[in-house]
Specification:
Layout: E1 3-4, E2 7-9, H1 25-37, E3 38-45, E4 48-57, E5 62-65, E6 71-72, E7 75-76, E8 79-84, E9 89-97, E10 104-107, E11 128-135, E12 138-153, E13 157-164, E14 174-176, E15 182-191, E16 216-222, H2 223-234
Antiparallel strand pairs: 1-2, 2-15, 3-4, 3-8, 4-5, 5-10, 6-7, 8-9, 9-10, 11-12, 11-14, 12-13, 13-16, 14-15, 15-16
Length: 236
């Protein structure tokens, strides 16, 4: 597990569920996008520790995740298994890892996942977002909002910070806006201290409805930078 200024990667299992419990229009769009474009990543076995991370489809055959997810026993692997939300599985091979950011591309069977729609403009601080992840029991999710744009952490790459209770199992998975478009990829998380309480006026519009604020800060690779690096790795 990588550490940088108290930022820790999140490549293992998480234990979160949707916070609001309400099927708003935004969560319906997010759920549809996750069902089509998201998969859990299983690595290891045969006596080695199993890693459970997350991934999102880039095109018909290429799927993106964090490079740190694709390790078993601390050693980089060349193969993994993707598990779709409906339980369908596919063996995949690692095509490339980036030396510029914590990003890797794997090759999956054509059509196993549908390419995720990606946001092209309009990111702003306070914007509500939703993250997809996995644990040993299956898909999980978290919601929150963007708190800081335009960051760059050398060990990870260019990105932003969101406030949400994403945890272990979200690494490599998509963070989406209210339209179900990917804004970034979950890469690292740090505990920001005890959860604080605020009235409704202290919460961004569209964020979780209860007063308790999420206590973790999550670093996301920004999707425009991810897309550019993925195209370079793929050779397009």
């Amino acid at each position: 597990m990588i550490r940088l200024r108290n930022m820790i990667t999140v490549a293992l299992a998480g234990m979160l569920v949707l916070a609001s419990g309400q099927d708003t229009q935004a969560t319906q769009k997010v759920k549809g996008a996750v069902a089509a474009s998201y998969a859990a990543v299983h690595v290891g076995g045969n006596g080695l520790p199993r890693t459970i991370g997350s991934a999102v489809a880039f095109d018909d055959t290429h799927v993106l995740t964090n490079a740190h997810v694709l390790k078993a026993g601390g050693t980089a692997v060349d193969e993994a298994v993707l598990v779709r939300q409906d339980g369908e599985r596919a063996a995949v091979r690692v095509l490339a890892r980036s030396e510029r950011m914590d990003l890797a591309v794997v090759v999956a069977p054509k059509g196993f996942l549908r390419p995720a729609e990606r946001i092209s403009a309009g990111l702003r601080e306070g914007m509500p977002v939703w993250a997809a992840g996995s644990n040993a029991q299956g898909p999980v999710s978290a919601d929150g909002w963007l708190t800081r744009l335009g960051m760059h952490i050398p060990a990870f790459g260019p990105g932003m910070v969101a406030r949400m209770d994403a945890a272990l199992g979200f690494s490599g998975g998509p963070v989406l806006d209210a339209e179900g478009r990917v804004v970034g990829i979950t890469t690292a998380v740090r505990d920001a201290g005890p959860a604080s309480v605020a009235g409704p006026a202290g919460l961004p519009e569209g964020a979780r409805s209860e007063a308790r604020r999420p206590r973790r800060e999550v670093f996301l690779l920004e999707i425009a930078a991810v897309e550019a690096e993925a195209r370079r790795l793929i050779g397009r």
